[in-house]
Design a protein that fits this description.
With 640 residues, the chain is α+β, with helices and mostly antiparallel strands. 24% of the residues lie in helices and 16% in strands.
């Protein structure tokens, strides 16, 4: 995987990479299956929204026992460096509180910002440049700290993000946005000029420019309060996570026994071992009446590491586990649940903030010509690609780029390249190709040498997609050479601008938070091309002549389209219909005028539960299950 020396955008994109790999490594190629039942798509406005199971108010108690194949890329659960793996964010939601937060449910309600530590969601002042938050009284840290959370604890979290040594995973959403935040501080004690704490219950942020989704950015786990008396002991990336102090309803088991009298006395809390387990128990300092977003039915959560994915699902079926969490089930398990009516209610498949796309490099012929790119969009058989990835239980066919679960995501019905059965249209592809400079014979095929033997970057888990793309593109005269590489090699090649990789099957991934800017800027903004090795603008959308000269890559005579102006326009708009419409406009521009990506599937989060799960909720904000909304009927207790 990538190291802590990656540039900012590359570090932020590791989440999408990691989640794609977790999914791909476990998905076995199966025939297309019918869309599945379970918790998909439901929504509402209360903590019960998006729930499936018995009733809105199930009994409290019991333990959710689950397993994952790896705790990889969680930065040892240090919020400042965690790569936004879905299950880690589910754990953070259970352990940490932020100034504002999401409702932790599915559907549109799950994208709504609501107060958490703050008394209300503030409206910006000073022409959108100032945000003032007032904290609710008497909210405390969990043991071993056991004291009131103050504004300085939130300030300290941002000072950690600003500390260069801690390598903040998504710090660049704050750098240059909050006055004084550069990511170059030499200590977490360094002051930030743009954050003021006039009293223990007030914190004020001063921005350099209006930022319409600033509230979503401060809902990040990295922005949760941090007690300096504990965190000061950890000055290397990932080290604080072993002794993470909770502010939410749950904490690591053994937290109360941690000795914080000195840094030398402080040892790793027993409830978390990055090689084997996470065990959560109720936080005795938490007061439910201060929290309107978390239901907290469970008495605890046990997450163990089991690298054998098939074994995880076998244990669910035997009743040894209450459900899965992140790993998609093997094909045989999927088939069993979708063909047995008595099991269908325990199979949950929900759309999440993910898209996968075929990428085309706009600096490489023949993809310097928009008509060639549109021909590719017309010819690809997305239904065949879906089957290659496990069928409708694992993914949904994508008709545009921005996932419909994100604000501004267009309706599924929007599809400028719609064909019967999503199987592509050779006739329309050939008609588009005839308009290009790369079809001198006007026979609907790419006739020149630039169209031959183009490298197509992929990883071995997607080899079925390679075959579909290879066969379809050959019909319009484009021949590709699939290169199924190791994960590190594949993404290093795509990140390295001077490599000029023509195509890949790996465009997309996940939004870094439930705000569309976090999806659009890394993938399509020229700012994502600010370093020689940059993620994730593989298509080089918006590459400038100056950047091309700096990286010593050729710049097409026809130029390269940019959507920077649209992204910048959307970023400053306040959250609401106007901002959503702006992002919708970006999606339409990318699909009809730029066409650098051909989206082929939107992701789904798949969880199989045991019958004792009486309430299941998927959290659209984390693209994972909502541990604070889940309920079970078992009588399991966690040994002390």
């Amino acid at each position: 995987m990538m190291t802590h020396d990656e540039p900012g955008p590359a570090r932020a994109a590791r989440r999408g990479l990691a989640l794609r790999l977790l999914t791909a490594a476990s998905c076995v190629l199966v025939t297309a299956l019918a869309a599945c039942s379970g918790g998909g798509g439901s929504s509402g406005g209360s903590p019960a929204a998006g729930a499936s199971g018995s009733g809105a108010h199930p009994a409290r108690g019991g333990v959710y026992r689950t397993a994952v194949s790896s705790f990889g890329l969680t930065n040892n659960m240090d919020p400042v460096g965690e790569t936004q793996i879905g299950f880690a964010f589910s754990v953070y939601d259970a352990m940490l509180r932020e100034l504002v937060n999401f409702r932790h449910v599915n559907g549109a309600a799950g994208t709504e910002i609501v107060p958490d530590l703050a008394t209300s969601v503030p409206a910006p002042t000073d022409n959108g440049l100032t945000y003032t938050f007032h904290l609710k009284p008497d909210i405390k840290f969990a043991p071993p700290v056991n004291r009131a959370i103050t504004s300085k604890d939130i300030l300290y979290a941002f000072q950690r993000i600003n500390d260069a040594k801690l390598v903040a995973q998504y710090g660049y959403y704050y750098y240059g946005v909050i006055q004084g935040m550069t990511g170059k501080a030499t200590s977490p004690d360094n002051a930030i000029s743009g954050i003021q704490t006039p009293n223990p219950t007030t914190i004020v942020f001063h921005l350099t420019k209006p930022t319409g989704d600033f509230l979503q950015r401060v809902a990040s786990p990295a922005a949760a309060p941090v007690p300096a008396e504990v965190a000061k002991c950890f000055n290397t990336p990932g080290s604080y996570g072993r002794d993470l102090v909770a502010s939410g309803p749950y904490m690591f088991q053994g937290s109360a026994q941690a000795d914080i009298s000195s840094c030398t006395a402080l040892k790793p809390i027993s409830g978390f071992d990055p090689t084997s387990h996470i065990t959560l128990v109720r936080n005795p300092a938490y007061v439910q009446s201060t929290d309107n977003t978390r239901a907290n039915y469970l008495n605890g959560v046990q997450i163990t590491v089991d690298p054998n994915v098939a074994d995880i699902f076998a244990r669910v079926q035997k009743g040894q586990l209450d459900g899965s969490m992140t790993d998609p089930p093997p094909a045989t398990v999927t088939r069993t649940y979708l063909t047995d009516p008595s099991l269908a209610a325990d199979f949950h498949s929900d759309l999440i903030n993910q898209v996968e796309s075929v990428t085309m490099n706009l600096a490489v012929a023949p993809f310097t010509d928009v008509h060639v790119r549109k021909a590719v969009a017309w010819v690809l058989d997305k239904s065949a690609m879906l089957r290659a990835l496990g069928g409708a239980s694992h993914y949904s066919i994508a008709t545009h780029i921005i996932p419909p679960t994100l604000p501004g995501g267009l309706a599924v019905s929007y599809d400028p390249y719609k064909t019967p059965g999503a199987s592509g249209s050779l006739a329309k592809a050939q008609a588009e190709m005839k308009l290009s400079a790369f079809d001198p014979r006007r026979d609907g095929k790419c006739d020149v040498a630039a169209c031959k033997k183009l490298v197509f970057i992929d990883i071995s888990q997607f080899s079925g997609v390679d075959t579909v793309v290879q066969n379809d593109l050959a019909k319009i005269g484009i021949t590709i050479v699939p290169r199924d590489l190791s994960v590190t090699t594949a993404f290093t090649a795509l990140f390295t601008i001077k490599e000029l990789e023509p195509m890949s099957a790996l465009g997309g991934g996940y939004a870094d938070y439930t705000g569309t800017f976090s999806f659009a800027q890394p993938n399509f903004g020229s700012a994502a091309l600010s370093a020689p090795v940059s993620c994730c603008n593989y298509s080089l959308v918006g590459l400038t002549q100056a950047q091309a000269a700096s990286y010593k890559v050729p710049y097409p005579k026809t130029g390269i389209p940019s959507v920077d102006s649209i992204i910048n326009q959307c970023e400053v708009l306040s959250d609401g219909p106007q901002r959503s419409a702006c992002w919708s406009g970006l999606d339409k521009t990318m699909m009809t005028k730029v066409m650098a990506w051909v989206p082929y599937v939107w992701g789904r989060n798949i969880v199989v539960t045991a019958p004792d799960v009486t309430r299941y909720v998927m959290d659209v904000a984390t693209s994972s299950i909502s541990l604070t909304q889940l309920a079970v009927s078992n009588h399991v207790s966690i040994p002390s």
